[in-house]
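Q: Given only this backbone (414 positions), what sequence would you predict?
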């Protein structure tokens, strides 16, 4: 068991889409294991890694996280959220590390085996080039990319371990790799997952209080009650979301996508993080016959381009993320309570933070110096975030001005 010799700060990377009982269990269990006195969450913004608009906006989800035990919630930039597991994990972990006060990193894990996860992560790092080359060869010979990578790992490393296929363990490996790459002192705290897996649907056991986020979203789309699977803070918000609203969101999204695909040339697709190699042409052909997002993705995906890959690329296209954005340039605060405020103030006062802290977008944009390379990087990422929130508001049918990133500010302490 890991124990803090002095009060520690627990870090968690999460989407909370929506915040459910499994998330609450993970947070409480990690606090119990470590003895940490505070919790900081690096949370996805308005878009999540599967290339979808979040069920509830980032401000509300941050407030729910505070209600459920977090002390400070910071935003993972949209370009990280709409990327593969490696970039997403690196963005979240590096932000927590840059605060200069987080001591432990907790994450859900199907296996809960830290020794196994660390060994696999080390092998992935040591043989990264060889695994990548072998994956490419196997993929070109007809294997799907996930299967090719798993086979490449086994062939190249000769390890007795199989590369995990479960979502939480896949992310866990990337969290550990990032901690190693940063040479961070963050202590790794895997918390074994309880209840259904990430992609599992509703469990028929009437006594079960755990359900995956995927299962909860499916229940909402079917008009079913989700109350027993989420804490009261989540239930107060998501019970308002109706199947009709979700259908309207999908219709708006599809209309935006069709216009953007038709108006974009191959050069636009090529600069997207998940673009290139003719996928733009596949989309342009598919969009003329597809009658839904599901059909559009189905007509575009292939062995090389998985469903999730295409889904992410579509949202990248609307938000206009590009390959130039690699690492977060700032720490954006979404919500905090009095303890979180004190932690953040002490970190900044003592110079422990390695990235600038942003609580107000307009004030930050006004003070940035265009002649400074780092300021230009901050502006570029902030404006991408502003644009992303505008797209989110169009998809969800919300007022653009009132919900703009230029207008919204910290969630009030509760």
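A: Predicted residues:
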């Amino acid at each position: 068991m890991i124990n803090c010799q002095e009060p520690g700060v627990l870090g968690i990377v999460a989407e909370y889409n929506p915040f459910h009982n499994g998330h609450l269990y993970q947070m409480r269990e990690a606090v119990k294991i470590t003895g940490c006195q505070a919790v900081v969450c690096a949370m996805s913004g308005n878009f999540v890694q599967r290339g979808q608009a979040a069920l509830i906006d980032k401000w509300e989800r941050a407030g729910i996280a505070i209600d459920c035990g977090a002390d400070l919630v910071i935003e993972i930039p949209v370009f990280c959220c709409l990327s593969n597991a490696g970039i997403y994990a690196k963005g979240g972990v590096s932000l927590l590390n840059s605060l200069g006060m987080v001591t432990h990193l907790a994450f859900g894990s199907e296996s809960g085996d830290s020794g196994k996860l660390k060994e696999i992560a080390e092998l992935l790092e040591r043989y990264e080039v060889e695994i990548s080359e072998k994956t490419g060869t196997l993929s070109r010979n007809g294997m799907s990319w996930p299967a090719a990578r798993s086979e490449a790992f086994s062939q190249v490393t000769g390890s007795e371990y199989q590369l995990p296929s479960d979502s939480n363990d896949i992310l866990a490996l990337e969290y550990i790799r990032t901690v190693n790459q940063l040479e961070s002192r963050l202590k790794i705290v895997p918390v074994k997952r309880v209840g259904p897996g990430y992609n599992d649907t509703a469990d028929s056991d009437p006594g079960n209080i755990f359900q995956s986020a995927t299962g909860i979203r499916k229940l909402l789309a079917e008009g079913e009650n989700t109350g027993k699977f989420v804490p009261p803070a989540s239930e107060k918000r998501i019970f308002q979301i109706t199947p009709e609203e979700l259908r309207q969101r999908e219709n708006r999204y599809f209309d935006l996508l069709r216009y953007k695909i038709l108006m974009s040339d191959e050069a636009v697709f090529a600069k997207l993080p998940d673009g290139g190699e003719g996928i733009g042409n596949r989309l342009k052909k598919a969009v003329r016959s597809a009658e839904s997002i599901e059909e559009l993705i189905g007509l575009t995906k292939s062995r090389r381009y998985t469903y999730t890959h295409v889904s992410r690329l579509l949202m990248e296209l609307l938000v206009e993320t590009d390959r130039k954005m690699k690492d977060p340039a700032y720490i954006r605060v979404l919500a905090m309570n009095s303890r979180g405020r004190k932690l953040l103030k002490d970190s900044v006062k003592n110079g422990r933070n390695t990235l600038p802290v942003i609580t107000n977008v307009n004030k930050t944009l006004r003070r940035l110096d265009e002649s400074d390379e780092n300021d230009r990087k901050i502006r570029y990422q902030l404006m991408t975030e502003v644009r992303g929130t505008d797209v989110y508001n169009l998809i969800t049918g919300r007022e653009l001005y009132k919900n703009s990133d230029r207008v919204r500010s910290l969630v009030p302490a509760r």
